[in-house]
Amino acid sequence: MKATQARKIPAFLLYGETGAHGQSADRLLHVETIAARSRVNNWRIRPHLHRNLHQLMLVTRGGGEARTESTVAQFRAPTLIVVPHGTVHAFDFEPDTQGFVASIADDVLREYVQRDREILALFAAPQTLQLAASARPVADLRNAFQLFAREFASHAPGRTAALEGLLILILANVLRLSHTFGGVAGAAAGRAQWLVARFRDQVENRYRDNAALTDYAKALSVSVSRLRAACLKITAHSPMRLVYARVLLEAKRQLLYTNLSISEIAYELGFPDAAYFTRFFSNRAGLSPRAFRRQNPHGL
């Protein structure tokens, strides 16, 4: 298949954009209303991903459908949606839905993680949290987003410091709301959680390479036993199971959101042939790649 014929998952800085309007992508901090980008696209945001940006979305009015990877969730305001970097996501909003979208560069987030490692758990996986309208943290979060958006649009002295302070306030309120859903681990797991986060970074860069567990441990300067213990403590899964899960996730993405053939996907993921890839996928997904593609008609 020619490259011009193969549809792949679009990767944007912000949806529809490949440049940062004067800001480097690795230092981006951005906020806008849901309507700002959705209205001009008929309230539909097609499947895409951000390689270095995490996103927090607060829906304050309206609703719609959120798709993250192969999961589909209906939502009504107030709703908090967490989209970690590298997550394929799409939205179909009801017309005139209101709310805010904050985009946070991965390196900016990691600065805050150094101060409070629980923040890292917020972005461990995509989340769509239906909130209670009367909850105090919801009102606090809405007010913080409003101030954040107003400050972002201003050019007043102290703007950078104000934005950083408001971002910390937003993350604190998101953390508190996430605790009510039982979604964040306690501080006692901090060191293990940090090691697992670093391991996931390594996996993200190397999952196509068939690297051995000893290779991952060496890159992280820890023993295999320590890495295994941390993964089991935080995720209840072994390190290699996490690697295989990442390979499976990428396979599902390619099947859902591209028109690459099974053989092409197998090649991209480092499998020696399509038959080996089909066995790997079928054993873990419970159905063949072709059957998975037929049953999940999401597309670009």
CATH homology group of the largest domain = Regulatory protein AraC
Tally of DSSP helical segments: 12
Question: What is the CATH architecture term of the largest domain?
Answer: Sandwich
**Class derived from helix and strand content:** alpha+beta
Domains counted in the coordinates: how many? 2
Strands, count: 9
List the uncertain runs.
1-5, 20-26, 183-188
Kindly report how far apart the N and C termini lie. 18 Å
At the first level of CATH, the class of the largest domain is Mainly Beta
Shape: globular
Average residue-wise pLDDT: 85
Helix content: 40-55%
CATH topology group of the largest domain? Jelly Rolls
Report the sheet-strand fraction.
15-25%
- Major pleated sheet: 5 strands, antiparallel
Q: What gyration radius follows from the Cα positions, in whole Å?
A: 20 Å
Strand order of the largest sheet: 1-8-3-6-9
- Reading the helices and strands in chain order gives EHEEEEEEEHHEHHHHHHHHH
Describe this entry's structure for a reader.
This protein has 300 residues and is α+β, with helices and mostly antiparallel strands. The protein folds into two domains: 25-180, Regulatory protein AraC (Jelly Rolls, Sandwich); 188-295, Arc Repressor Mutant, subunit A, CATH 1.10.10. It has helices spanning 34-38, 106-113, 118-122, 136-153, 159-180, 190-206, 213-220, 224-235, 239-257, 262-268, 274-285, 289-295, and strands at residues 29-33, 44-48, 53-61, 63-68, 71-76, 79-83, 89-93, 98-105, 127-130. The strands form two sheets. Strands 1-8-3-6-9 form a five-stranded antiparallel beta sheet. The chain has a four-stranded antiparallel beta sheet with strand order 2-7-4-5, with no helix packed on it. The longest helix is centred in the middle third of the chain and has 22 residues, at 159-180. The chain is globular and about 55 Å long. Mean pLDDT is 85; it is low at 1-5, 20-26 and 183-188.
